[in-house]
Amino acid sequence: MRAIITGVGHHVPERKLTNADLEKMVDTNNEWIITRTGIRERRILEKEKGTSEMAVPAAQAALSQAGVSPDELDMIITATVTPDQIVPSMAAMVQKKLGASNCWGYDINGGCTGFLCAFTTAAQFIESGRHQKILVIGADKMSAIVDYKDRNTCILFGDGAGAVVMEPSPDTNEGVQDFILHLDGNGENSLYMTGGGSLKPATLATVNDKLHYIYQDGRTVFKAAVNGMAETTSRIIKKNGLTGSDISLFVPHQANYRIIDAVARKIGLNQDQVVVNIEKYGNTTAATIPLALSEAWEDRRMKKNDWIVMAAFGAGFTWGSVLLRWAM
Ligand code: UT7
Hints:
The protein has 328 residues and is α/β, with parallel strands linked by helices. The chain folds into 2 domains: 2-169, 3-Layer(aba) Sandwich (Peroxisomal Thiolase, Chain A, domain 1); 175-325, Peroxisomal Thiolase, Chain A, domain 1 (3-Layer(aba) Sandwich). The chain contains 11 helices and 13 strands. A 5-stranded mixed beta sheet has the order 1-7-6-4-5, sandwiched between helices. The chain has a 4-stranded mixed beta sheet with strand order 8-13-12-11, sandwiched between helices. α3 (52-66) crosses α4 and α8 runs parallel beside α9 (257-267). The radius of gyration is 19 Å and the shape is globular. The protein starts with a strand and ends with a strand. The relative contact order is 0.20. The mean pLDDT is 98. Bound molecules: oxa(dethia)-CoA. Oxa(dethia)-CoA is lined by residues 28, 32, 36-37, 112, 151-152, 155, 218-219, 221-222, 225, 255-256, 259, 283, 313-314. Oxa(dethia)-CoA (UT7) is lined by residues 28, 32, 36-37, 112, 151-152, 155, 218-219, 221-222, 225, 255-256, 259, 283, 313-314.
């Protein structure tokens, strides 16, 4: 038994925040942002809306493509670092809004690797035979935790959501074939948001000290991301008796075009094999991979039996790669 993707969808808010807009907000410029990151614009959700408002339409698109109705779902796993609120989970909010009346579920915080964490978790429930229909969502409203006075971060992040429906297949040659995932808490001082948790709950002081915003040491994360994603991707390809030329599509986390390019070069992939949409959305954290996968499928960039590798790196640090064979 293997877990296959039977539907994929995405949703982004309409409002665009362009590099020209950011030039008016912080000391930056279009050329720096494009050459250093590859980003031209990001989408920003309305202030009064929560992440689930993007997760639900993304999920509905994936469900409709799979021909699965919400009440058929066994489980909903949502990957996010920006749930609508801390308690209850965003999965509960999505469940209610979808009217998925026969399922259970929860949130996963795996930073930018969150979607791969949720996806591989769902695959285990399907391979075990326990569940037949699982909705996996990656969604983040990064604009809620970005300081638009900090040029180191505000140029990078955006809002968005992507979702897949997973179901079992008796054909073991399709669907999820392998995954390699890592967690290293030594990355805690390189990418973090310290306020709002149990250690530093919200107070006037935490707000004044700007502890409810995301911070990162860009250079450290950059190097670790290139090395981490390239290593797990090369390893998973070799481990499964494949070479780079067997991979039809590489779907990496979209954090920086230079990271994607460096990883692709290290593995020996050409541009046609790599999905890049960072110029339109920036880094949408847990949403980047399902969003990229959904757009690639809309553009018919994969077909049945194609080998696909997804790879990510994020806060923790957490990183890894997933190998699958496209089944649609
Ligand atoms: O998704 C989670 C994982 N996150 C990532 O993977 C992000 C990883 N890191 C990066 O993408 C890059 O490190 C950044 C895009 C964040 C920064 O690019 P960089 O090439 O590493 O630049 P830098 O931090 O080394 O800064 C170079 C210069 C500095 O000036 P000096 O010290 O050389 O005078 C910065 O102050 O660029 C300056 N700078 C800016 N200039 C214009 C930093 N941010 C900006 C800005 N506009 N927005």
